[in-house]
């Protein structure tokens, strides 16, 4: 009988890249082993949360010893599939999209923006920050041609759903959405929406709430 892979909570999954990044830094410092309390101190995440997150993947450490740093780095690299290169398309090269192009992700891991789409680009292609960019009229054709499955969406809200429909038809499996609108997609497509205004409001709320709590 086939053993089912345990379902990892979404909150834990979101923290995995953070664990990988901090553990890489710890490994680069020459440290051989680390405890959950030490990780908690540098990451500002409760030690109990770290131990609970790690427990979803089995016995990653030993009581009284802690965690082997190089083993964890290797484990999370494989878990996050960091050995495989992932090509990403950027849809919309406005202020935010242009910032993504200039940053690009390959500097930090194996995810890279390889193509962009924007109305300012030509049908035949225009170079933007060293990345080939094309007019949206070529969107589906190019996405299929390049076998792109992951995109970053930074378009105005009014056209976000129409663009998403085209991406779904082109075979895209994952969308990182920066348009402040809820997108409708099939169950086979995953959307992560980052609304910067909501994130800022949340930050302000927590800061004000922390101040109130400190005066109680």
From TrEMBL:
Pfam families: CoA_binding, Put_DNA-bind_N
Keywords tagged on the record: Cytoplasm, DNA-binding, NAD, Repressor, Transcription, Transcription regulation
Xref: Gene3D superfamilies: NAD(P)-binding Rossmann-like Domain (3.40.50.720), Winged helix-like DNA-binding domain superfamily/Winged helix DNA-binding domain (1.10.10.10)
Record localization: Cytoplasm
Coiled coil: none
Function: Modulates transcription in response to changes in cellular NADH/NAD(+) redox state.
Record's protein name: Redox-sensing transcriptional repressor Rex
Origin species: Sporosarcina soli
């Amino acid at each position: 009988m086939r053993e089912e892979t345990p379902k990892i909570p979404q909150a834990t999954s979101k923290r995995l890249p953070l664990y990988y990044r901090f553990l890489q830094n710890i490994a680069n410092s020459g440290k051989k082993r680390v405890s959950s309390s030490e990780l908690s101190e540098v990451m500002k995440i409760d030690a109990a949360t770290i131990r609970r997150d790690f427990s979803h993947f089995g016995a990653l450490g030993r009581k009284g010893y802690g965690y082997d740093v190089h083993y964890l780095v290797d484990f999370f690299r494989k878990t996050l599939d960091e050995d495989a290169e992932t090509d990403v398309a950027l849809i919309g090269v406005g202020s935010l999209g242009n910032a993504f192009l200039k940053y690009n992700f390959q500097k930090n891991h194996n995810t890279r923006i390889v193509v962009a789409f924007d109305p300012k680009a030509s049908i035949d292609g225009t170079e933007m920050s060293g990345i080939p960019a094309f007019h949206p009229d070529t969107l589906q054709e190019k996405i299929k041609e390049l076998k792109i499955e992951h995109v970053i969406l930074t378009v105005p809200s009014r056209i976000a759903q129409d663009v998403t429909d085209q991406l779904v038809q082109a075979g895209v499996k994952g969308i990182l959405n920066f348009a402040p609108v809820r997108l409708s997609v099939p169950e086979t497509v995953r959307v992560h929406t980052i609304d910067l205004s909501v994130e800022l409001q949340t930050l302000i709320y927590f800061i004000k709430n922390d101040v109130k709590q400190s005066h109680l």
